[in-house]
Amino acid sequence: MTFQAYNTLTRQKEPLEPIEPAKVGFYVCGPTVYDLIHLGNARPLVVFDVLFRLLRLEYGDGNVKYVRNITDVEDKINAVAKERGIAIFELTATTTERFHEDAAALGCLEPTVEPRATAHIPEMITLMETLIARGHAYVAEGHVLFDVPSYAPYGKLSGNSRDEIVAGARIEVAPYKKDAADFVLWKPSTDDQPGWESPWGFGRPGWHLECSAMSHKHLGANFDIHGGGRDLIFPHHENEVAQTCAADPESGFARMWMHNGYLSVDGEKMSKSLGNFHTVRDLLEDWPGEALRFALLTAQYRQPLDFTFDLLKQAKASLDRFYNALAQSAEPAAGPVPDDVLAALNDDLNTPQAISIMHSLADGVFRGEKGAGAALRGAGVVMGLLQSSAKDWFQSGDDDEAGEIEDLIAQRLAARANKDFAEADRIRDALKARSIDLMDGPEGTTWRRT
RNA sequence: GGCCAGGUGGCAGAGUGGUUAUGCAGCGGAUUGCAAAUCCGCGUACAUCGGUUCGAUUCCGGUCCUGGCCUCCA
User: Fold this and answer.
1) What integer pLDDT is reported at residue A170 of this predicted model?
2) What dotted CATH number matches A4-260?
3) Domain ranges of chain A
């Protein structure tokens, strides 16, 4: 089964044809580690994690290389570190650690390689030297700038031409730029800013340059897929293409570009600058990470998705249904991923379709179909869902409390045996007030947190 | 202004040139001491106007509306 996806570059759905037939490599822009990630940032994380899982099934775990960078030098980092009065290294280290915790809570596998920008300064310097030598970059007042007019295909990815970009520019053009569309590769640093010695003086890299250097080092001049949020198409990805391809005429950079749609709030993009965001960390206080992940997968990745608490509620309800099915089928181990689930995901990551199939597998479990539970859990493997036990899903929390609950259940069973239903209901209601539901079944009484 | 998306039932959200997924919520019933879970049954949708077609929600064109990028942004 061949994976196909909508390619932003060609604006059509295309089958994936890896450069090396048995291997796939892809690059996804990771976070700039100046602050906690919000749920909008989590969308590409989860979407491309599903892609990673899917490709690993198809090509084998060892044949898929997923590169997701950490941007740990960037002006926003400097500003936040200064504001909090802490060292830049301290800020990036703790933020990176929290990012890893959040990603794990969302059920994401670790990428194959997670390069940090600050560990690739020599590669960036080499890249700039090549660009200058080839006439695609120039030095001005301690800056190194990319010469946009020197690179004719500029604008191919975003659909913007150089002229249109300049005409729509909303900011003043720095005086040292030869052309209004030129962008910074390297800029001078003062003593209180992070910086490295370079042929052009003490300075630091521009954001776009970092990703070009890292993707080139870990995937080469040509690779299969580049992913990221739609908002990165211009200028970030456009500039990555320009830098890499201008430096190396043999380079085609990424063959396929996959861009996820936005997560919105009340119809507007969730973003730090609008202030309408919910951090993953905050949401994890009240919601299981798996419910957050599920919510992000309820829409196909290219579609806009509007965040509401009702969305999370519905995600949790669906997971409750799946875990009910797994509990009922005696917690089966995962079987192979069902073919129709693979087919859905191979068609441009149609996760809503896959979820729909999972619902019909749950139906199968409730109907008593053999193997349906294993198939359901198998589907969960590629979706990154349903890997806990139903018991953990429903009962996770304070272990000391669990003993007390069991005691109350025993008291209630005694009351029921005596037909003292008033007392039995009193105990049920008391637990319900603590968000604990009791269920009487043929095997006895079980409980869950709601 | 340029470029790029999106408008499907109460909500979320797939899909399709002709019988219109799936889940949640709602209603009725079964089951239950009462519940929960489960099962059975029920309901309103495809922004708008034209065109193509035997037939369009689905293809083409116009219009309206919403959002995004062009500055940092997943």
Assistant:
1) 61
2) 3.40.50.620
3) 4-260, 277-393, 397-449
For A9-62, the pLDDT digits (tens) are: 998 899 999 999 999 999 999 999 999 999 999 999 999 999 999 999 999 999
Q: Please give the mean pLDDT across all residues of chain A.
A: 94
Cβ-based burial of A450 (10 A; exposed 0-12, middle 13-18, buried ≥19): exposed
| Tens-place pLDDT, residues A395-406 | 987 778 888 999
φ, ψ for residue A225, nearest 5 deg: -135, 140
The two three-digit tokens of residue A431, written as one number: 């637990």
The strand ranges marked E within A266-350 are 268-269, 305-306
3-class state of residue A330 by DSSP: coil
Question: Which of residues 194-253 of A have CB within 7 Å of strand B?
Answer: 207, 228-236
User: Nearest nt to A438, CA vs C1'?
Assistant: B36
**Per-residue flag: A367 CB under 7 A of strand B:** yes
Chain A 11-40 residues in 7 Å CB range of strand B: 11, 29, 31-32, 40
Strand B nucleotides within a 7 Å radius of protein CB atoms: 1-6, 11-15, 21-25, 32-39, 66-74
Q: Distance between alpha carbon A294 and the CA centroid of its chain, in Å?
A: 12
CA A357 / C1′ B17 distance in Å: 25
Establish whether the CB of A394 is closer than 7 Å to any nucleic acid atom in strand B: no
Token pair for A235: 């200028």
- What CATH topology corresponds to A277-393? Four Helix Bundle (Hemerythrin (Met), subunit A) (1.20.120)
Q: Which two tokens stand for residue A339?
A: 């073919």
Determine whether the distance from the CB of A184 to the nearest atom of strand B is below 7 Å. no
A422 nearest nt, CA–C1': B34
Q: Name the token pair of A298.
A: 């309820």
One-letter amino acid at A28 equals V
- Tell me how far the alpha carbon of residue A182 is from its chain's centroid: 30
A384: left (phi over 0), alpha (psi -120 to 50) or beta: left
Question: Does the pLDDT at position A174 exceed 90?
Answer: no
